[in-house]
Specification:
- This protein is of the alpha/beta class.
- The protein contains six helices and 13 strands.
- The chain has a single domain, classed as 3-Layer(aba) Sandwich (Rossmann fold), CATH 3.40.50.
- The strands form three sheets. A nine-stranded mixed beta sheet has the order 11-10-9-12-8-1-6-7-13, sandwiched between helices. The chain has a two-stranded antiparallel sheet with strand order 2-5.
- β10 and β11 form a beta hairpin.
């Protein structure tokens, strides 16, 4: 089996968010960068689990980004990827990124293309759908787990009030969320091996973006908390009537 795992670079969840250039660019100074958790914890680890069951499985990693993204690709290789691919583009447009991934994947005939349901910075949740459409592959979105039997996949998705079981044949694209796998950390052997694993640099194909970032805006500061004595519910009722709409 041949698997492509799409990984992206995102700010650490503890990073302080700020913007520059009239709120049109994210301020990167002092920010710690990580692999997008949905890509790492669920998509990549699921691919590694499949490789552990079948050692002949090949795992390729793809990232669309500049040279600053290579440390996160090396970390993914340390976790268990076999080969890294970096498309040398700094675009943040989902259509451009999807086009680059599809262009690399098309001639490789991957059995599975796995990625997280979304990135934790833009929360777009659109790459998986675009890639599947560009490659004319079936898509299972927001999957919480799947079983592979030869070329048949039985995937689970959460729906309102229960679960949905989807059965389809490979090749296909699956976007992964919580429940797919358990997060791992790279061991020393994996870290050492990652230094010698291949990392290909590919120049991007020409694609025009469909979106443009006009400005970023921080959410409003949280309002203060008012504590009401438990034996004075009338005060709470009065506040709900007078101030609840403005809190």
């Amino acid at each position: 089996m041949k698997i492509l795992v799409c990984i992206s670079r995102t700010p650490d969840t503890t990073a302080k968010i700020a913007f520059t250039d009239n709120n049109t660019k994210f301020a990167t100074e002092g920010v710690q960068w990580i692999i997008n958790p949905y890509d790492e914890w669920y998509a990549l680890v699921k691919a590694i689990e499949l490789k552990e069951k079948d050692p002949s499985t090949i795992i390729h990693l793809i990232n669309v980004g500049c040279i600053d993204n290579e440390p996160i690709i090396r970390k993914a290789l340390a976790l268990g990827g076999d080969e890294g691919i970096r498309v040398n583009s700094n675009s943040e447009d989902a259509y451009v990124i999807s086009s680059q991934i599809a262009a690399v994947a098309a001639p490789e005939n991957y059995d599975l293309i796995l990625l997280g349901k979304e990135t934790i910075d833009h929360n777009g949740s659109s790459i998986g759908g675009m890639v599947s459409e560009m490659l004319d592959l079936n898509l299972i979105s927001l999957s919480t787990g799947f079983q592979l039997n030869d070329t048949t996949i039985e995937a689970t998705r959460e729906i309102e009030g229960g679960e949905e079981i989807v059965i389809l044949e490979t090749p296909c694209v699956i976007t992964c969320q919580k429940g797919m796998a358990e997060a791992r950390i790279p061991n020393m052997r994996g870290i050492m091996a990652a230094r010698t694993k291949p990392l290909k640099i590919i120049e991007p194909i020409p694609v025009s973006p469909l979106t443009e970032t006009m400005a970023f805006e921080l959410p409003p500061a949280k309002a203060g908390v008012k504590l009401i004595p438990a034996d004075q519910p009338e005060i709470l009722i009065q506040l709900l009537k007078e101030e609840a709409k403005t809190i």
